[in-house]
Amino acid sequence: MERVNRPRGTADLLPREVQDWQRLEAKAREVCGHFHVQEIRTPLFEHTELFMRGVGDGTDIVEKEMYTFLDKGGRSLTLRPEGTSAVARAVLENKLYVETLPLKLYYLAPMFRYERPGTGRLRQHHQFGIEVVGSDSAAADVEVVALAMRFYEEIGAKGLTVALNSVGCKECRPQYREELLEYLELRLEAMCGDCQRRAEKNPLRILDCKESCCQAAVLGAPSIQECLCGACKAHFDRVVQGLDALRLPYRVDARLVRGLDYYTRTVFEVMTPSGATVSAGGRYNGLYTELGGVELPAVGFGAGLERALLLLQEQGVTLAETEPGVDVFVIPLGEAAEIAVLQTLDALRRAGLTVERDFGGKGLKSGLKRANRLQAKRAVIVGEEELAAGKLLVKDLQDGGQETLELEELLYRLT
Fold first, then answer.
1. Of 157, 202, 252, 304, which residue is 20 to 30 A from 361 by alpha carbon distance?
2. How far apart are CA 314 and CA 39, in angstroms?
3. CA distance linking residue 236 with residue 265, whole number of Å
């Protein structure tokens, strides 16, 4: 009898490999713990409509890559090709948005896409993903990028950089769309068939095409950065200020658009020294209303675990083994403090503490209320007075005592 082999584009994880997978997943969970991100798990398959409405019916994923089938009841179901739409459906269906916002969720899960198998590209692959739901603050974008970079740092990857852009919003993107279409009008015949079709539905995705003929055609295309409205420009500037404050390596890439229709404003990719993408994400403020739910701004990223392991192999890194509610809750008061606390957050988390921060900007009373709800041990408060003195106001949330300390002194006491 003929032997049955595994399907093309899948992989067996043998016992000697599973240890590395467990350590990689443990690192992801550990980093999420330090950022106070909670796990969510969704079904392997969803109603096909979810991805058509969420991802976009003109995307490559929906048009070419989904594993879609009819069940015995004649319902169209699809194996999950990406995690964001599934998480959004779960948040809406279970009304998680009535809880304290923002929600900070992560998943470690298999995804399924019908594409040509290759190195680090499988039809069943695994993703580590983060979704921060309910905050429109640029600080949330910075938090997501910082978490992505922290994950790779913790597993030992070296030389990674962030490619960063803004794709605007429904107010300013139409202007750019018209300018781009005008530029592409005389060049479409030289492009691939996919991009010729994309010009009708979403011409921005032409910028993401990897075909050499299309890359050559868009070399002189107008930059979306020049078309951003005031609100999108201010948001992007705040993201850049945050990455600068954290000293994260990044470059602005005006042609970075990502391949999914739900992105608005910030988009980013984590790049290896050779230029390969190992993680990508961005902001998607319209997805929840597109799925028939309440308006919820959100930002997140997805990281391929197969690609992460390949990167470590290429760099000669072996995973070493290494869990903590909330040790410290940080409350910035005012715009200047929003940036100033980033280094404090980074230092506390690097010291192995579980640290959460206030994103709401609603003041001290609201921040302390949330800190107590999270059962945080201490609150660190940074306002104008603390900024001027270069110190932190530290409040013990168990006995109510408070004192003013320098960051080094606080780290010494807590570690």
1. 252
2. 29
3. 7
Confidence band (pLDDT; 50, 70, 90) for 120?
confident
Distance, in Å, from the CA atom of 60 to the CA atom of 125, rounded to the nearest integer, reads 17
Decide: 62 and 259 in contact? Cβ < 8 Å: no
Position 268 pLDDT exceeds 60: yes
328-414: CATH superfamily:
Anticodon-binding domain (3.40.50.800)
Per the annotation, where are the binding residues? 82-84, 113, 127, 131, 258, 262-263
Cβ–Cβ under 8 Å, residues 364 and 375: no
Q: Are strands 124-133 and 161-166 parallel, antiparallel or unpaired?
A: unpaired
Which residue numbers belong to the known binding site for L-histidine? 82-84, 113, 127, 131, 258, 262-263
Backbone phi, psi, residue 253, to 5°? -120, 100
Q: What is the per-residue pLDDT for 375? A: 92
**Which residue carries 């995307």 as its tokens?**
59
Helix and strand numbers (H, E) in the chain are 15, 16
DSSP 8-state assignment for residue 304: E
What pTM value is reported for the model?
0.86
Interval 14-49: pLDDT, tens: 988 898 999 999 999 999 999 999 999 999 999 999
The answer to whether the beta carbons of residues 282 and 270 sit under 8 Å apart is no
The answer to whether 379 and 341 are in contact (CB under 8 A) is: no
Q: E strands of 18-100, at which residues?
A: 38-39, 45-47, 68-70, 76-79
Tell me the pLDDT of the chain averaged across its residues.
Answer: 91
Calculate Rg over the CA atoms of the chain: 22
d(CA 249, CA 189): 38
CATH of domain 15-167+232-314: 3.30.930.10
Domain with CATH 3.40.50.800 in the chain: 328-414
For CATH 3.30.930.10, list the domain ranges present in the chain.
15-167+232-314
